[in-house]
Amino acid sequence: MIEQLLPPGVTSSEAFDDAAPAPLFPAEAALMAGRRARRRRQFATARACARRCLSQLGRRPVALLPGPGGAPAWPDGVVGSITHCDGYRAAVAAHARDTAALGIDAEPAGPLPPGVLSLIASDTERAHLAELSAADPATPWERLFFSAKEATYKAWYPATSTWLGFRDATLALRPDGTFTATLHPPQPPPVDPVYEGRWLASESLVITAVARGWGAVPPV
Ligand SMILES: CC(C)(COP(=O)(O)OP(=O)(O)OC[C@H]1O[C@@H](n2cnc3c(N)ncnc32)[C@H](O)[C@@H]1OP(=O)(O)O)[C@@H](O)C(=O)NCCC(=O)NCCS
């Protein structure tokens, strides 16, 4: 599914369960020691996805340990992103010379828990979501909104090592499968504050992706 959202040059790999063998490097296994079985399985399958991405880039498999802020430390010259949720694990990666930043996020489709939207969306954003929902009630716009902000954060953080709150970005989803996040953190951002992204929604999942350098990929 996720490859539909990615520009040329970005590799991807996804899994819908943890059935395939997903061996860990010793340092990764040590990190997961004592963690719950579900977390260990998701971590391992997502790492296997990430190493398939590296292989597609012609890079050798390496341990992918969390760096500062929890962002995975990709090898030099590579940017990438990882997501996992019930029923889905995925990784994307690209040569840093081609793509400055990548962020992906997957969430189960369906409404957000009560009270969440008011924490993550401004009044303007909520009005926009209400318009989208009125025009197309079958699409889980609020869940997509949440996911798109998380994907934006995953693209932002590795480039800046800076926290970004949900209210530090204004997000506009569009029915054509694209979105734009305009960041306005308290300090002037050290990178271009406009992030373009793409989304898709199936019956069970929403998936969002942000990349610098979309080129001329047609809307989903
Ligand atoms: C970090 C965060 C985005 C992860 O999202 P999530 O839906 O909880 O979990 P996902 O499974 O989709 O993603 C987890 C993966 O994200 C990656 N990740 C974690 N922290 C990250 C960071 N700071 N930067 C980039 N990637 C990060 C990791 O690869 C992690 O998986 P791993 O621990 O197995 O390596 C979320 O927990 C969070 O802190 N959000 C608040 C910040 C935010 O989203 N602000 C919105 C600004 S507009």
From TrEMBL:
Record flagged with keyword NAD: no
Domain 4'-phosphopantetheinyl transferase: 102-189
Domain 4'-phosphopantetheinyl transferase N-terminal: 28-94
Molecular function, one GO term: transferase activity
InterPro entries named among the record's database cross-references: 4-PPantetheinyl_Trfase_dom, 4-PPantetheinyl_Trfase_dom_sf, 4PPT_N, Enbac_synth_compD-like
Assigned keywords, A-Z: Transferase
Domain of life: Bacteria
Keyword Transport: no
SUPFAM superfamilies assigned: 4'-phosphopantetheinyl transferase
Name the UniProt record assigns to this protein: 4'-phosphopantetheinyl transferase superfamily protein
Record organism: Streptomyces bambusae
